[in-house]
Amino acid sequence: MKFNWEYFFQTLPYVASKLNITLSLTIISAIFSLIIGMVFALISYYKVVGLSQLLKVWVSFIRGTPVATQLFFFYYGLANLSSWILNMSPTVAVAVIMSLNMGAFVSETIRGSLISVDEGQREAAMSLGMSGWQMTSRIVIPQAIRVALPPLFNDLINLFKMSSLAFLVGVRDVMGAAKIEGANTFQFFECYACVMLIYWVITLILTAFQKVLEKRCDSIYA
Questions:
Q1: Check whether domain 15-162 has CATH 1.10.3720.10, yes or no
Q2: Which pTM was predicted?
């Protein structure tokens, strides 16, 4: 069976028309995963008794289990125990799982960047009479941002690609549109090629933006 280029270019605009749903999921999940990651990272960084130990288990569990399994467990499993989850829309459920999953990875990224700041600079800040918050906000965070930026952008790209799992619970995003179109025409080859092209192009754009932002940060913190 040959690749039908005419059908590919006919289908591409339809599949791409659902990109707004994919990007919305990514942006919303990115915001919440960053908030979750920052909170978790600070708890681990300051070694809050009780909470830091629980977070280690949580992060290990999230990082060690497949995202698709987490989504099914949340949307289909926990729905038996919670009417709130039972009545939740598929889009919200996907955003929740994407945020929680990527939040665990972001927390480790941020925690690692905070730890990377030289201990001598912390001691110097404390010797100058800075409080813990002043030291963190003026000395640690500016340097940590520079270290964390590349891996955080990689997390964003992974989050964008993770959104392709939304079709598993019926969300009509880019992947969902391709699945529906392929089921109608049985030309899955061309339909999924459209998906791959769209994800590739957006990933290239994000990667280019990442390089520009890194250069900007290098010039600011140089």
A1: yes
A2: 0.86
